[in-house]
Every structure is written in structure tokens, then in C-alpha cells.
Write a structure and sequence with these properties.
Elements: H1 4-16, E1 29-34, E2 40-42, H2 45-52, E3 59-63, E4 66-70, E5 75-79, E6 85-90, E7 99-105, E8 109-114, E9 121-125, H3 129-132, H4 146-154, H5 160-165, H6 175-185, H7 198-217, E10 254-258, E11 261-265
Length: about 280
């Protein structure tokens, strides 16, 4: 599933454009079509096209793992889930096999939502907070300092890995970057949040920001067919490296299942202490 760095990279590509491809900010919408109705959460497919027609893209950003496109009168939210991706292409291009939704612009371009596994979702809203309001703080939020993060961790008794994946606790982190951050912070995925010290919380927050920043710098991670364009997968320290040597100490990376998610860690750098259980 695309996580914060991948979604940020897509938002940047759409917002700023690429060589040979103009930015979408300022583009005026001509029409829209939904090919897989369950992709659209709200409104109805007919209302979707009617509402979008004539609106202009004002800004493109991200909140957590949501792509946020501000329009003249509404906000478009897109969650890519397991396999979603967004392409900008000429309207005369043949539609790809797994196209679920398209938005056509007056300049003869279209935004195509491509989603082989059909899990991605799209909302067209007047108030995006009806969806985004449940999300926790952004990892780079200036108000999320070490003391605040420490208090949030200590205020709940959960294993660190599932807690970091909880979007209500912290928005944007997923399986890849949680594993990488915990290794950087030398904390076991099963370490209990209410047992972290202030120093550990401070270091973990620094590591979360460091691995996310590196992921953004490398345009995210391209794994299998889920996301295209990044190369952070070439710099993983633990994720998907079970059995390979830890880049810090050389011990074999281990994989366990935590909360039904594959979790990678170094048993030597991230020991599970008795009190963590």
C-alpha cells in the first residue's frame, strides 16, 4: 500500500508536473466518468460528473495516506489502498485495463485512476474533515514535538508496531516505514508504548521523520506492481530483508507477524526485554 512518501511523491508529480507533462494545478475539468462504482464512496456517479464539470484544480496535497485535491467548490480525496495509482495522459490514449475512474480536462488531458485490486476509494466532498477529521497528527507537524509524542505514547498501552500503523495515532505511516523507523530507533516492534522513556520517544520521532524524509527524497518505494517511480526499496535496512544481515550489526533480520502484518526487525539491535511482554 502506498504510504506517506509514495502519496507525497504522487501529489508532487501532479502538483508540479514532470518533464513533458504540465502540472494539474489550474486545470479546468470538462467531465468525469466512473467505471467501477464501488471506487466512488460519495456522491453517486452521475452526481460526481455533474459536480466536477466546470471546476478548476486549486491545489494538490496530502493528508496522511490521502491525496487531497482542492477544487473551486469541493475537495476530492483519493485513497490508493493496495494497488491504486494516478496517471495524467492525453484523452485520446486507449484506457488501461484496470481503469476505474477518469477526470477529463478542457486541455485534452485526463487524470486516470488505475486500480487492479479495486480497493482504492474516492470521495467528492464539500467538507473533507468528515473523512480526514479522525486522523492523528502528521509526522512533520511542528506541534508534534518530543514531549507531545512522549505523552501520546505513554497515554496508551499498545505494542509499538500496531500503534504506529494506527492512523488515528499518527497519520501516514505504514508497514514499510514503521519497520524502518523502529530499527533506526532500536526499539522492538512489540515494545509497549507506555513503557518508552522520554529519550526513546524522542529518538523514535527523529527516526520516523528521518526515514520518511529519505523515502520522499527517493520518491517512495516501488515494490511489485503497487507503485511506480521510487527507489527507496534499494535502501531498506530491515523491511523484506528477513535472513539477510542487519546493516548495523550483521545479525540476520527476522520476520514475525504482528497484528496480521509481516514485521521485520533485528533481534540484536532491537531486543525484546522482559518488561516489554
Amino acid at each position: 500500500m502506498p504510504e506517506l512518501p509514495e502519496v507525497e511523491s504522487i501529489a508532487s508529480r501532479l502538483r508540479e508536473g514532470t518533464p513533458g507533462q504540465a502540472a494539474l494545478v489550474g486545470a479546468k475539468i470538462l467531465s468525469a466518468h466512473v467505471f467501477w462504482q464501488r471506487t466512488l464512496v460519495t456522491p453517486s456517479p452521475d452526481r460526481f460528473g455533474e459536480t466536477l464539470a466546470g471546476q478548476t484544480i486549486q491545489a494538490i496535497g496530502r493528508r496522511g495516506k490521502f491525496l487531497k485535491i482542492d477544487l473551486t467548490d469541493h475537495t476530492l480525496l483519493i485513497h490508493l489502498r493496495m494497488s491504486g495509482d494516478l496517471w495524467v495522459e492525453a484523452v485520446d490514449q486507449p484506457l488501461a485495463q484496470h481503469t476505474r475512474l477518469i477526470i477529463n480536462f478542457v486541455d485534452q488531458r485526463r487524470l486516470t485512476f488505475h486500480d487492479p485490486r479495486k480497493f482504492g476509494r474516492v470521495w467528492l466532498l464539500t467538507d473533507p474533515q468528515t473523512v480526514l477529521g479522525v486522523l492523528g497528527p502528521e509526522p512533520f507537524d511542528a506541534n508534534l514535538n518530543a514531549q507531545v509524542f512522549y505523552q501520546r505514547l505513554r497515554g496508551i498501552r499498545r505494542q509499538l508496531k500496531p500503534l504506529l500503523l494506527d492512523q488515528r495515532f499518527l497519520a501516514g505511516l505504514g508497514n514499510i516505514y514503521a519497520d524502518e523507523a523502529l530499527h533506526c530507533a532500536r526499539l522492538h516492534p512489540l515494545h509497549l508504548s507506555n513503557q518508552v522513556t522520554f529519550a526513546q520517544a524522542n529518538h523514535l520521532l527523529e527516526c520516523i521523520r528521518a526515514v520518511l524524509s529519505e523515502g520522499i527524497r527517493r520518491h517512495g518505494a516501488s515494490i511489485d506492481w503497487v507503485y511506480r517511480g521510487g527507489n527507496f526499496q534499494n535502501y531498506f535496512r530491515v523491511y523484506r530483508r528477513s535472513g539477510l544481515p542487519c546493516p548495523t550489526c550483521g545479525a540476520p533480520i527476522q520476520k514475525i507477524i504482528v497484528g496480521q502484518r509481516g514485521t521485520h526487525f533485528c533481534p540484536q539491535c532491537q531486543p525484546l526485554r522482559r518488561e516489554d511482554g
